[in-house]
Amino acid sequence: MATIEIQNLVKRYDDGFPAVNDVSLDIADGEFVILVGPSGCGKSTLLRMIVGLEDITEGELRIDGKRVNESAPRDRDLAMVFQNYALYPHLSVYDNIAFPMRLSKNKLPEDEIDRRVRRASSMLGLDEHLERKPGNLSGGQRQRVAMGRAIVREADAFLFDEPLSNLDAKLRGQMRTQIAQLQRRLGITSVYVTHDQTEAMTLGDRVAVLKKGRLQQVASPRELYEQP
Ligand code: ADP
Ligand code: ADP
């Protein structure tokens, strides 16, 4: 669990154009913040700066009060879930979920890894698929494996980059419910990029609207989407 403090964050790519421009946002412990805005407005860039996959040009990033501008992704201990799942095709579901724990520099004992994989799989309804390879799974099952991999790390926060955008409407609804339940159960600080208004309405404590790299508005889903 963690707070995420974003202060005057700027990202300039090599061409000098500010993809993220002076964004400030305080995210409380356990809060679920949705990031919305048109394509190219800087959502992914902001997420990638928070997780540490993109250098910060200007500004300050604090996780649980500690400045992390220069620390590697591993030292920030945030778990990211991508829209393309990023699963390892040659590994079983079990090994895909266990992978980040085996990679970690503070490696857990194998029986603790096993306990966490089984607990996450049961939360996500994957118990019966642990020996299968990702290529033999449905889109929704793959997405759940990606979620499982994030959960087992017991990271300080989750960062989601349009995790459901590759799923059909029915699966998207099911996964949305599952993410909402997980969030209630785990109460973990989350930042979630989406284009989907229903996801923003059902998952978000607050919605942050980005436009051309700038934060335009931060409001509750109700304030933002419901007519007065
Ligand atoms: P979004 O996720 O909201 O679609 P992005 O964060 O991907 O937006 O992109 C924000 C802006 O930064 C866009 O103008 C995009 O073209 C630019 N951009 C993204 N990644 C790079 C990169 N690696 N190099 C240069 N410009 C980039
Ligand atoms: P570095 O290369 O700075 O030492 P790491 O060894 O921690 O960083 O991570 C290596 C790669 O693993 C990163 O470039 C990234 O692709 C991936 N990675 C690490 N941590 C995360 C994370 N929390 N979320 C998503 N991807 C990550």
TrEMBL record:
All residue ranges annotated as the ABC transporter domain in the record: 4-228
Keyword terms, alphabetized: ATP-binding, Cell membrane, Membrane, Nucleotide-binding, Translocase, Transport
Single GO MF annotation: ATP binding
Keyword Plastid set for record: no
The keyword Transport is assigned to this record: yes
Protein name: ABC transporter ATP-binding protein
Biological source species: Brachybacterium conglomeratum
Residues included from the entire protein: 1 to 228 of 415
